Amino acid sequence: MNSPHRQDLRTRKRSGARKYSLQIMTLLLFAAFGLFLAACSGGGTPPAKDSGSTGGGTPPPTTPPSTPPTYTLSLSIDKLSILANNTDSATATATLLDNLNVPLKDATITFATTGGQINASSVTTDTNGVAAIIVKSGPIKTNQTINISASATYAQAQTTQISITGTTLTLSTDKTNIETGTTSTLTATLKDVANIAISSTTVNFVITSGSGFITLSADNGATDTSGQISITISAINAGTAVVQAAALGAVASQTYIIAAPATAFGITTPSEDPKSLSTNTALPIITTAPGVTTVEYFTSIGFWNNGENNYEAPVAVNGTATANLTSTTAGTTNVIVRDKANPTTKTDSIQINISAPPAESASLALQASSTVVAPSTGPSKNTVTLEALVRSANGAVVGNAPVQFSIINSTGGGENILPIIVNTNDFGKAATTFYSGTSSDSDGITVRAKVNGITYLGNPIQDDINIIIGGTPGSVTLGCATEITVVNTTTYSYPFTVQVDDANGNPVKNATVTLNIWPTHYRIGYWNKLVQVIQPPPSWLNPVNDYDIPNEDVNKNLRLDNAEDIGPIGSGDRCPIPVDATPDGKLTPPNSSAGSVPPTVNTLDDGTATFNLTYLKSYSGWIKIHLTASVLVYGTETSSSYDMWLTKEESETHLGASPFGYFSDSPPSANAGTDQSVVTGTTVQLTNLSSDPDYDTLDYDWTILGQPAGSTATLSDTTAYSPSFTADVAGSYVIQLITSDCIYSVADTVTITATAP
Prior knowledge:
Blueprint: H1 21-41, E1 72-77, E2 81-83, E3 89-97, E4 108-113, E5 117-118, E6 122-124, E7 130-136, E8 144-151, E9 158-165, E10 168-173, E11 177-179, E12 183-191, E13 202-209, E14 214-216, E15 220-222, E16 228-235, E17 239-247, E18 250-259, E19 266-269, E20 275-278, E21 283-288, E22 294-298, E23 310-314, E24 320-325, E25 331-339, E26 347-355, E27 361-368, E28 372-373, E29 383-392, E30 402-407, E31 416-418, E32 421-423, E33 429-435, E34 445-456, E35 459-469, E36 473-480, E37 485-486, E38 491-502, E39 512-522, E40 549-550, E41 600-602, E42 608-616, E43 623-633, E44 636-645, E45 676-679, E46 683-685, E47 699-706, E48 724-726, E49 731-740, E50 745-755
């Protein structure tokens, strides 16, 4: 008899069934004995029929009792507040007990809410008398406090509260100190919890104090796409007034100080707001400050008369204070002025946009909103926005620089640019519009932007960009290489190629492809080498698992939300998976386990772009990824995806176990019995003496490895515990038995020798 060998299988361990058979037989004997005693007891009241409950909890009465019982209902919630994003959630839990404080199973709990959103209006209690619902803010992003109520028959209803927060409303104004007869602009900005503007929402304005001092141009208005709405504040009489704005439960206030023209505190020069300023140029900031001794000046960029970013200016006899602002660097600053003695009541501000002067222009970068545009036909015109950014030699943006736009290789198909010359703004940018013609070749139309009349080191300051008219992407395809590169001892690199073709099957050049990668599943287990068992030959197997565990981050927000930390739960194709629902306080698997790809790639002349998927060796075999490539043209997205389990390079001889855990096991022993000698024509009953130290349920695989020439012998059942066969020809029959416990597989052989009678 051959000695056993180990062999890894492709699946997980499952618990044996035979070790429980004695326990089950014992329980059946006790049950039969109980029935015998009940039959022999005579008379009495028969036991009540089981209601169907499988343990735990008392079912509620099915018909109204003559005297209604009194049940106890409690209600709790696991959070005091949730965010107004319809993603964050809380769990409201109701528990129902009978008059003996025993949990009531299969009772209906009715839930209701005064706001937000709940996932169910009624829930049946479990064996612990518990019913739970999920509470979210709902699609309306309103800050509010809502009531969650729960009710049940024969119990007093309960209520709890939760706050919905996160929507913000902020107010900004061009000046807080205004003179009678003048105006100020008040702007309200409404944003959600993710700091994204909320549009088309009404903001209400009201004067909460000082209604005789100011008036409002409107009591309400809807926010624009930036989440903003502005109204005009008109100063009527001297005094203090407060304006309050409210929207979606968020509230903000702004205080105004109104003074007569001769006594108002504020910046009077410059009068423009915002104000443009060139670098290395002094700008006087004059503040009218009647009755004030010292005015404080503050800036975040540049410096004042004293070389610092804050300065105290004395008030002259004419009631004004002056400070000169100078900056060697470009940028935007909000200059603040205030009365040193009364800094909260007397203050004003102005925005200064600082840029380099045109003479310091040194470089220009041209960009287009799209490098592919549809042809224009008839009165319909398709356009691309062109934007030139001009900087100085030290990188400062250049303001008021004249930029000229031109077409270098016009096709005569009607393409043009309007306007053709634009001065840069305070942020160094000049924008214009390119109008497409009927078509272009594969290289596209060359557009040039140039700073007019200014050179740097004797060279023109310009940049070119190509725009293709036509070439609409019709399909995007992803493909991977056949070999993996070993970057280092811990990292693999897997080459991919993306192909972009147009609707006619021609390659699309210079298309920007956006890439995204996500780990959809993970596995637990380990790698191991298959040992030769006569058949099959040795080889490397996939990880010892045949099941997928989904990513716990269901909504892909990279945040551990309620009910997402669930652990590996499920069953394999062949072997059961132990249920492990113990929360570990983190999302599994981490987002980084999928590896990384560049955020975008640009296609070459043949419409292809190559990139590498880089990932850690420790995740090979244990992470399944979803790779997406998409291209956006004319506002429509075309995409392709690729799903795969991260794999290893073939020459790697060993990789560690799954970083998410694995289960250990002791291998079984295989024993195909002792060799036998029989006469031809005999039916041979094979002997199976295999065993398992863990008492696992075993699987068997019998194979005839060798038999005499001319023999047609076959096994009665290749997976039976003890099959048979007929020795039809004289000679030796070599039979192999592989015994498996779902993790390990070991083998043994037995030889049956048949002789003629």
